[in-house]
DNA sequence: ATGACATATATGTCATGACATTTATTTGTT
DNA sequence: AACAAATAAATGTCATGACATATATGTCAT
């Protein structure tokens, strides 16, 4: 089997290409695709713990802690104490974070249109289903 | 959640899940999935430059340099001087590298069977085609 | 032949992912 | 209440990816 044919490498290389494209498009705003994914989740609902945020973005808690620290240093989010649990903090979007989201949303949309050029809606749906199935297979094995 | 957001999320998370699974399976042999991808490429043809190897694995030259250094320290590959160009070196598989490949090949195969459980051949083919199309779209944009 | 430019590799930096460990706090058991 | 176990977050380490730059060597125009 040639490497090009190996599904794992196809998936990872495609993901990296998409990430690179988004990174390039976001570069003038000093926001990386991973930071973007966190901002977008917070837009759907903030004042949540690092742990909850980690679950929602599908990332390791340690990594979310570090990405959040970066976003906080940039003034896009803030961590405030959780009055119900002194171990945890609640992550909130700052106004500047909300402004950045408004700026970057159309750019994100343009990038995705480029990436999905020539791909039909039903193909994308199947693609997502297959990826979800593979993810389930992996996670079942990792936990079992 | 917008559809295209879900797709980027799906691709990167699925790729990470597969990488994690392979990493776990390879852990006893002290070989990472990325190191594995380089070994497999060398198996198809070694005595090639870092630059050529980078092209074949689809990775940055700087990263291939570093991964190669690790593999050389482990005694799996060797860099020998290129008699035709003193700037470059030729990367060769060592016997121990070839042995590791024979050991890990069936493990890699098992992992792929786990990941692809419940997915038909024609679905996998379509999946690869769609991913290739998206990769082309990205690369065309990055270069253009 | 020489100097300007190109190329191959190496190295430095930052962001990230995975994972182990630490620290502070909470919870549960007695 | 006291102590053990669990939990949330932070931190440390290594591998990697992207990118900039450095260094050595090669190539080309003159």
Automatic annotation (TrEMBL), chains A, B:
Keyword field: DNA-binding, Transcription, Transcription regulation
InterPro entries in the record: HTH_MarR-typ, WH-like_DNA-bd_sf, WH_DNA-bd_sf
A single MF term (Gene Ontology): DNA-binding transcription factor activity
Domain of life the protein comes from: Bacteria
Pfam families: MarR (PF01047)
Domain HTH marR-type, chain residue ranges per copy: 4-136
Entry protein name: MarR family transcriptional regulator
Species whose genome carries this gene: Brevibacillus panacihumi
Source species taxonomy: Bacteria, Bacillati, Bacillota, Bacilli, Bacillales
């Amino acid at each position: 089997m040639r490497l090009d044919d190996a599904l794992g490498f196809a998936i990872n290389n495609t993901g990296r290409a998409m990430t690179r494209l988004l990174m390039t498009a976001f570069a003038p705003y000093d926001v990386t695709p991973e930071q973007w994914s966190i901002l977008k989740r917070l837009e759907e609902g903030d004042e949540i713990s690092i742990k909850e945020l980690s679950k929602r973005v599908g990332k390791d808690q340690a990594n979310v802690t570090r990405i959040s620290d970066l976003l906080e240093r940039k003034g896009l989010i803030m961590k405030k104490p959780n009055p119900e649990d002194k171990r945890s903090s609640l992550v909130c979007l700052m106004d500047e974070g909300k402004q950045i989201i408004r700026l970057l949303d159309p750019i994100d949309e343009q990038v995705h249109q480029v990436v999905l050029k020539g791909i039909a809606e039903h193909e994308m749906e199947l693609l997502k289903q297959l990826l979800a199935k593979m993810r389930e297979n992996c996670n079942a094995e990792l936990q079992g």
